[in-house]
Amino acid sequence: MRFIDEVEITVTSGRGGRGSSSMRREKFVPLGGPDGGDGGRGGHVLVQADAQLTSLLDLRTRPTWKAGDGSAGGFRQMTGAYGEDLVIRMPVGTLVKDLDEDLVLFELMRDGEVRTVAEGGIGGLGNLHFKTSTNRAPKTTTPGGPGVSRRLGLELKLVADVGLLGYPNAGKSTLISVISAARPKIADYPFTTLVPNLGVVSMGDEGSFVVADIPGLIEGAAEGKGLGHQFLRHVERTRMLLHLVSLEEQELAPLARWKVLRDELRRYDEALTERPELVVLTKADAVPEAVVAAATRAFQAEGVPVLVISAVARQGIREVLHAVWRRLGETAARPVEPGLR
Q: Are the C-beta atoms of 141 and 128 separated by less than 8 Å?
């Protein structure tokens, strides 16, 4: 499925129905008086979080949304029917903004959460309301209130327990394909992953956790290089970070690459550097043992414990999963507060 994480839509609530001008006419009631009913209110526009959705693609193909109008009032004080409410489903983690007011309205953070983004217009008054001692047969009514139109900006930030970070080709996609049912694109060239992928990791009877494979970050990501801003926003919704560092020879040493991305996180949002983190050295099967040992010592000298894996050879995977599970258990009582950027 194509991943869409930013969309602009226009929503309009329903117009209220017009009030009725009616006079009561029944046998033996010659002076029945006014009995025009009120118009029905217009339909509201609501948004609802749906955990089954993973992108905003459906909203991209439908840029305008309108709720139903209220019906006019009837005789015998009958109120018109309410306009049909419109419910727009969105993924959990969607940030909703009013673009005209340049205002963040709210975030949908729980499955099933419902918010109102545009209230329907009120129904008009029937002539019954305008009866007075001097005007016993009024014909005055009021029209229904207009609907509300809003231009909304929607921004999806994935909600996951663990975010996989690293340079392009650090082995993130391979790892998530090994530990979950996710099947991201895997290749031996940079920026294979252009959209975030979610995977559910089962820990047997103990439970499960959700992993987000964040596309590769590079130096300058905090300024938007390599689509850095679009990718970094998804890190904000993770409870902990699993930082993958490839052991394959590159321009920068493994420790230097880790420091570069840590600095990018700090420049984007200082709070991200305080997020629980595990560092994993990847592709151990592709380098000599001496390289693994040297990289491990370099991290340990900085006081950073590391784990070593080979996702292709399925080495060290169990140890990493149990380390992640323990760390998630330690952070369970401290949920991530949703930030508004």
A: no
Is 37's pLDDT higher than 50? yes
Q: How many domains does the chain have?
A: 2
The overall average pLDDT reported for the chain is 83
Question: Are 138 and 189 part of one and the same domain?
Answer: no
- Alpha carbon 245 to its chain centroid, in Å, reads 28
Measured CA to CA, the distance from residue 340 to residue 49 in angstroms comes to 17
Decide: residue 19, CB within 10 A, 0-12 exposed, 13-18 middle, 19+ buried.
Answer: buried
In tens, the pLDDT along 261-303 reads 888 888 888 888 888 999 999 999 999 999 999 999 999 999 9
Instruction: Quickly tell me which residue has 């008009």 as its tokens.
Output: 124
Pair 309, 172 in one domain: yes
**Single-letter code of the amino acid located at 151:** R
Nearest-CA neighbor of 219 among 163, 298, 166?
166
Mean pLDDT, rounded, for 63-80: 94
- Of 116, 141, 156, which residue is a domain's last? 156
Q: Amino acid identity, residue 164?
A: L
Q: State the pLDDT at residue 239.
A: 85
What's the mean pLDDT in 168-176?
A: 83
Burial of 93 (0-12, 13-18, 19+ CB in 10 A): buried
Closest CA to 306 of 167, 298, 240, 326: 298
The whole domain housing 59 covers 6-156
Of 156, 187, 212, the last residue of a domain is: 156
The whole-model pTM stands at 0.62
What's at 49, amino acid-wise?
A: A
**If pLDDT is split at 50, 70 and 90, which confidence band does 233 have?**
low
Residues 161 and 328: beta-carbon distance below 8 Å: yes
Task: Indicate if 166 and 286 belong to the same structural domain.
Answer: yes
- Pair 105, 183 in one domain: no
